[in-house]
Amino acid sequence: MEPSSSVLDLGCGDGELLALLVKEKGVKAKGIDINEQAIHECIAKGLSVLHGDIDEGLLDYADKSFDYVILNQTFQQLRKPDAVLREALRVGKEAIVSFPNFAHFSARLQIFFAGRTPVTQSLPHKWYDTPNLHFLSISDFVEYCKMRNIHIKRAEFVSGDRKIHMFPNLLALVGIFLITGGQTGRLEG
After folding, report:
1. Which residues lie closer than 8 Å to 33 by C-beta, 6 or more apart?
2. How far apart are CA 44 and CA 156, in angstroms?
3. pLDDT tens, position by position, 23-61
4. Domains in the chain with CATH codes
């Protein structure tokens, strides 16, 4: 990410990532979140945030009005991930999407041996209090991008503080993708 880039963080939470990007990269940052307490925390950090439901679209923003749109640990929590990603790619020149890998070997082992919904470092919630609505793997997202004609410019895979270079769908806790293109157009209905 270039210094002074314009960034829109969808589901920015308490603004930790945005504050870091402002401090380290000098980005022009905006955020959107549905949680009022998170918005208060962002404002206390001096960030520009709006209260909104990103599942309802980004109609207030013109095409390509941001250099980057970020969905950091948000994509799997959306009711309409396909529509929101289409909107992110419409308003942003590029999008950065990160999500927990539901196919990590520890999750697979918990399902296989215990027969229970997994709880891992990247999936810390029990089934009844998880914010996650969609359970995707790194391979699922790559396939999804191919189907939607979304170009993956770069991908990183991590497990804790280590980068994963081999077998990311099995060994990575989190996938991080820099993407462009795809089906665009305003969200309708």
Report:
1. 11, 12, 13, 39, 42, 49, 51, 52
2. 31
3. 999 999 999 999 999 999 999 999 999 999 999 989 999
4. 53-181 (3.40.50.150)
